[in-house]
Amino acid sequence: MKVAVVGTGYVGLVTGTCLAEVGVDVVCIDIDNKKIEGLRNGIMPIYEPGLEEMVVKNFERGKIQFSTNLPEAIKGCDVAFIAVGTPPGEDGSADLKYVLGVASEIGKNIDDYIVVVTKSTVPVGTAQKVKKAIQDQLTDRHSTLTFDVASNPEFLKEGAAIDDFLRPDRIVIGIESQRAEEILKKLYKPFVLNGHPIISMDIPSAEMTKYAANAMLATKISFMNDVANLCEIMGADVNMVRKGIGSDPRIGNKFIYPGIGYGGSCFPKDVKALIKTASENGYDMQVLQAVESVNDYQKSVLYNKIMKHFNNDIKGKTFAVWGLSFKPKTDDMREAPSLVIIEKLLAQGAKVKAHDPIAMDEAKHSLQDKITYCKKQEDALVDADALLIVTEWSEFRAPNFEEIKSKLKSPVIFDGRNIYDAEELRSLGFHYYGIGIK
């Protein structure tokens, strides 16, 4: 089979690369000449473990190509994935101009039957807009060519996207014809040989499934953060509570770790978009509004602890920050809690010295030269008044605490991810602050 993937961002590049890995002929298309030229030379536009090696290998064996020429690249393709961005508007709605622009270009250039698949996260009803955009172009061409549209939402976790694609929990396809279903099942057959299900459904249900999945995970996170905040007030330990409820199979132990709020490209955007979609259709998503409210509050929790410890005066103080990306194993800074915390510290006249294993270059786009970037995590500690754990990178989990204590001006740790043991740290002479513990 031959497949076109339009868009070489996170979703498009992972999709194209993993399809090439199992033998599909793939061409990835983007309007960014610099990005395409970089990919041809093994330069990745994003950081994702294992992606660079897989791209280079499959490019060298001719299974994946990179192009800026959609009219040429789309010819002879059985399937075209639309994987361009859907950035949120000021009102929280998803901006579909890039998706529909690609659909129009496809309509202008196809010369045979094709299945056009929305891979981008899009609101319910988008596939019909894509279908109309393609058909309008065919009508203008006086063409009788047939095509199908489908929805195939992605469920990739940043930092584990390659494994998620190659060994999926499930593959959801929204279709409206048997022909499209057969083509997509054939395309995904290599990924379900071990029994992973392909779940076929109507297109609106597939579009909703993506939003509902992310909204549910965001809800679990905000719920646990709400519980953690109450635990502190009541003298309970949220780590014990988490273990107590996580052993219940109806609840499970995933996404119930308290922290400083969710970020990234999916949860914030998708929660907002689902709230907006409901509002446009006369329905009030009360639970998700609360989820969003809790998450906004949670990004300030660590800052509030800092201000309380230092008696609301941090002017001239220096804080070491370990971790900038919104989660480990990615350089994604979108909606990262670190940005909120750092900006609040700077606004109070404090200084920040930060280290992140991957995301410092990306962080500079937002923070510029307002903070000091340290190549080594230990360098951030020197003469700092406290250490903040903001992202739970594995490199931070088992440090030399005596070294930390010797480098800091005062032995204070604000652990936004609860990766350290409170009793151990306090026995070593640290002032230790976690989330949801006394």
Describe the structure.
It contains 17 helices and 14 strands. Helices cover 43% and strands 13% of the residues. It has 438 residues and is an alpha/beta fold. The chain folds into three domains: 200 residues, NAD(P)-binding Rossmann-like Domain (Rossmann fold, 3-Layer(aba) Sandwich); 87 residues, NAD(P)-binding Rossmann-like Domain (Rossmann fold); 135 residues, NAD(P)-binding Rossmann-like Domain (Rossmann fold, 3-Layer(aba) Sandwich), CATH 3.40.50.720.
Q: Work out the count of structural domains.
A: 3
**What is the name of the CATH architecture of the largest domain?**
3-Layer(aba) Sandwich
How many strands appear in the DSSP assignment?
14
Global Rg: 24 Å
Measure the end-to-end span. Answer: 58 Å
The assigned structural class equals alpha/beta
Count of DSSP-assigned helices:
17
Proportion of helical residues: 40-55%
Which fold name corresponds to the CATH topology of the largest domain? Rossmann fold
Strand order of the largest sheet: 3-2-1-4-5-6
Question: Helices, strands, pairings?
Answer:
Blueprint: E1 2-6, H1 10-21, E2 25-29, H2 33-40, H3 51-60, E3 64-67, H4 70-73, E4 79-82, H5 97-109, E5 115-118, H6 126-140, E6 148-151, H7 161-166, E7 171-174, H8 178-188, E8 198-201, H9 203-234, H10 238-246, H11 267-280, H12 286-298, H13 301-309, E9 318-322, H14 337-347, E10 351-355, H15 360-367, E11 372-373, E12 386-389, H16 401-407, E13 412-415, H17 422-427, E14 431-433
Parallel strand pairs: 1-2, 1-4, 2-3, 4-5, 5-6, 7-8, 9-10, 9-12, 10-11, 12-13, 13-14
